[in-house]
Structure formats: structure tokens, C-alpha cells
Amino acid sequence: HEDDVPELAAIANNRQITEMTSRMPFPYRLSDAETFVGNCLRGEHEGYIYAVTLADTGHLIGFCGLEKRERSGGFEIGFWLGENHWGSGYATEAASALVDQAFRSTGAEQVHAVCRTVNPRSRNVIAKCGFSFVGLDEIDSVAAGRVPVERYALSRGAWLERKADVRNRA
């Protein structure tokens, strides 16, 4: 929402966040937040972009998305949270919801994820969601330049097996 712009600009203006993404500049200014939110409201993203908020307060703590990406050849999940919320399980919750959405709402046979090689927190989230390592690559990051990344994939079959395992343990 447009009223999220100031909070978005405040939490995203963090080099530790922007350098782990491909499209966020640093410094992250109010104008960057206005452009991003405006693009979302106009539907200028292929896929789904969600604000991650705290249930009890509604405060914005980050964003996640499920987008069609040429570089992956299909749907790719992405997520970031404000630094104050790292290690709370919110990224895993958001990423898991995106994976479920991809397989329940689209015909995707695979979902992809990418993280910087120097980002163990994202790697941990990706692993918790059941993704398998595919290989190393490089991407362009607005904030960090050309950077090495790890690529991951999760097949529909592996996702279904994980869902069945959870049901069988319950």
C-alpha cells in the first residue's frame, strides 16, 4: 500500500539487505520505495509480490515474491526482511507460503531460488523449504555489481513428498 512507502524506505536502506538482492539500490531512498510500491500497485511485476507484515501490529517487516524469471526458466521465490526481524522464522514462513502457492496455484513443475554465496541465512531458509542445490552462477546486483550466487530448485514431486511426510508425522 502507498502508506507502506516510508516504512519500506526505512527498513530497506540497509547495505546488508540490498547487497543480497539483485534489484535493490543502496542507498535505498524514499523515491525508490515510491517507485517499487507504484509498480506493484500497477501490476508491473510478472508474478506475485507480497508485503510481509506482523500479524499483531500490521507493521511492514519485508517483502517476498514469486516471479517469472527468465534467468531461472520459471518461477523463482525471493524474500528479504528488515534486519530487526532476522532469525525469527518469518523468512522461512514466507518462503514456504510462496512455494505452496507456486505448486497449488500454477502449473509449475519446478520452483527456483537463488542466494548470494555469502548469505548463509538465505541458504538456510532455502534448505528448510526443501530446495536442492543446482549449481553456481553469477548475477548482476544493483547494489553490489556482479556477484556469485547459488542456484536451487524444488520439483513438484519433492514438494508433494515433503507435504506427505508432514501429514504422516501429524
Describe this structure in words.
The longest helix is centred in the middle third of the chain and has 16 residues, at 90-105. This protein starts with a helix and ends with a helix. Helix content is 37%, strand content 31%. It contains six helices and six strands. The radius of gyration is 16 Å and the shape is globular. Strands 1-2-3-4-6-5 form a six-stranded mixed β-sheet, sandwiched between helices.
Distance between the termini: 38 Å
Report the sheet with the most strands, covering strand number, pairing sense and barrel closure: 6 strands, mixed
Shape: globular
What is the topology, as strand order, of the major beta sheet? 1-2-3-4-6-5
Runs with pLDDT <50, length 5+? Answer: none
Number of helices: 6
Mean pLDDT across the residues is 93
- Cα-atom radius of gyration: 16 Å
What is the N-to-C succession of helices and strands? Answer: HHHEEEHEHEEH
Helix content: 25-40%
Task: Give the structural class.
Answer: alpha+beta
Strand content: 25-35%
Keywords, separated by commas or semicolons:
six-stranded mixed beta sheet, globular, alpha+beta, 6 strands, 6 helices, 170 residues
Summarize the entry for a quick read.
Helices cover 37% and strands 31% of the residues.
